[in-house]
Amino acid sequence: MNHLESSEDYLERILMLHKKNSVVRAIDLANEMNFSKASISIALKKLRDRNYIFVNKSDGNIILTAEGESLAKSVYEKHVIISKVLIALGVNEDIALKDACKVEHDLSEETFEAIKKHYEEHVVIK
């Protein structure tokens, strides 16, 4: 897994956790991703250094910056659309979700937009 892919996975997970809970802390990420607290700490430092997140010192809440949120939303949208397309094609849901996670990082924006357009025009309507 390359650095960008890893960062995207963390940002996507932070976004998803924020949708479920109002506060996301390092321990929440560790539990959700099955990683050690040390691994999470290293990853969060890299995300802070890239200006994707900041951590509230008073409560430990991990907050996405505008740039981090934009990237997280983009990755999450790809994940959702690709998994829905695969499921619509008859792929088992568990496999579709795992495959979408792999594919979401490598698709060009042009390819994703074509898949999304096709999905919205032909699959969602039915």
Structural class assignment: mainly alpha
CATH fold-level topology of the largest domain: Arc Repressor Mutant, subunit A
Q: How many individual helices? A: 6
Number of strands: 2
> Please, how many domains?
2
Name given to the CATH homologous superfamily of the largest domain: Winged helix-like DNA-binding domain superfamily/Winged helix DNA-binding domain
- CATH top level label of the largest domain: Mainly Alpha
- Low-confidence region ranges: none
Query: N-to-C SSE series?
Result: HHHEEHHH
- Name the CATH architecture of the largest domain: Orthogonal Bundle
| Overall pLDDT | 92
Estimate the helix proportion, in percent: 55-70%
> If you compute it from the alpha carbons, what radius of gyration comes out, rounded to the nearest whole angstrom?
16 Å
Main pleated-sheet profile: 2 strands, antiparallel
User: What spatial form do the alpha-carbon principal axes imply?
Assistant: elongated
Structural description of this entry:
The radius of gyration is 16 Å and the shape is elongated. The chain has about 130 residues and is mainly alpha-helical. A two-stranded antiparallel ribbon has the order 1-2. The protein has six helices and two strands. Helix 1 (about 5-20) crosses helix 2, helix 4 (about 65-90) crosses helix 5 and helix 4 (about 65-90) packs across helix 6. About 70% of the residues lie in helices and about 5% in strands. The mean pLDDT is about 90. Strand 1 and strand 2 form a beta hairpin. The longest helix is centred in the middle third of the chain and has 23 residues, at about 65-90. It has two domains: about 5-70, Winged helix-like DNA-binding domain superfamily/Winged helix DNA-binding domain (Arc Repressor Mutant, subunit A, Orthogonal Bundle), CATH 1.10.10.10; about 75-125, Orthogonal Bundle (Diphtheria Toxin Repressor, domain 2). The protein has helices at about 5-20, 25-35, 35-50, 65-90, 95-105, 110-125, and strands at about 55, 60-65.
